[in-house]
Amino acid sequence: MSFHFPANLRPWFKLPPLLATIFLLGGCLGDDDSWHGKDIQGLMPELAFELTGTSGETIRAVELDGQIRLLFFGFTSCPDVCPTTLQKLSQAIKAMPPEMQSQTLALFVSVDPKRDTPERLASYVEFFDKRIVGLTGDEPRLRELAKRYRTTFGYDEPDADGNYAVSHSSAVYVFDRDGKARLLIRPDLSADEIRQDLVALAGESS
Amino acid sequence: MSIIDYVAPYDFSALTVLSYMLVLAFYGYGVLRMPEGDRPGTGRVLTFVLGVMLCYGVMQTRFDYYSQYMFFVHRGQHLILHHLGPFLIALSNPLPVMRFWYDRISPGLKGALKPVGFVYRCLQQPLIASVLFVGLIYFWLWPPIHFDAMLSRNLYWIMNWSMLLDGLLFWWLIFDPRSPALSSALGYGKRMLILALVAIPQMILGATIVFSRGMVYDVYEVCGRAWPMEPATDQLIGGLLTWIPPAMMSILGILIILRRAMHEDGKYSTRSNPLKVTTS
Fold this sequence. Notes:
The structure holds 2 protein chains of 2 kinds. By secondary structure, chain A is α+β, with helices and mostly antiparallel strands. Chain A is built from 6 helices and 10 strands, in the order αββββααβαβαββββα. Chain B is an all-alpha fold. The relative contact order of chain B is 0.11.
């Protein structure tokens, strides 16, 4: 058996183009610095759903076209993440110029349909802002929507009083007026940073 | 959840299911129809099927769901797609089956496959194969790339398929059943050298993840975990899976090659004239 490494150096010539490709790919996929949120353009499918609104009516994504939509999964018994996020979204939207506010809508999708009836959801979202719409549906439909946006939710075992925690995505998915997925807002963003992103988004497509 | 929910694909991919069915069908037909003398034994057939089914299992069952929402399960998925599955497939030596089919394809198709052969030979240059093997692991685990890959369905599929195909290429290069003394297959020394070399960057990467204090891969945080697990624990186990089993598989690979080299020692005379010991 021979232990000497190849005398031919041909492989070396193929290495630079390979590395260049990897770095180029990396450049294309990397974060865009002009947004506070994460640019997810092209990564996720356009907004599509058929869910139940707070008055029990069916709402489809296309009916809300023409507005910037912020999709957020949660549940009304949520102790921390949901109220904080909704509070932040509400602050961000209220701080936008008035004409832009009317074109921005936050969609709060409850993934806990057992406890969150449309009525309960209505009183919950109204507490935060009138630009927040409560939505829910049966579990298979919610699973389908969550899967579409590469997220999931799960239920903990109920305690003695029947209360249980629900694990869900902590991110907000932002869609532009045409329903294209544009930004992912991580939970560490401040209300002001969210406002700046929303204003920039509203400004670019009007 | 019923058994069917666990076995059924979470994210059904017709292309993936079809590919696996074709591989098994071609392999099975080849094994049954080939002359008795060429036919691989039961152990080899089982090893092959086990390797294929492991890869299928992590791609098209409930396992895939957990891989998407837990970092450590994702690392386990790649361990199988990039290491264990291809390791078993290559070790089972499906070369007789490939020869069986190659003899039966038309000359026209053989001509059409020429560019594939060229690309294959390029990718199997030892240096390129090693850089690709380690590079792909680093590429998909580079935090911004990893984030995007977990968000985009297309990228996710590209990631998993690229890992599987590269794993097959790499372990086939290592376990090529043809003796380097009789063919152009890579020498045993070089194979062992590659295995040792690729282990080092994998160990460094795994250890880096294990000893990171902050969250390196926050996509699982942002998109929700399959079940509530401490994020630090998830990352720690994921790091260990990146670090230890691949290193162990390199060592195992070296031992297998070493055994083969020892078996062949002196079996084939590689030079027409034996070397004389010269003293000056």
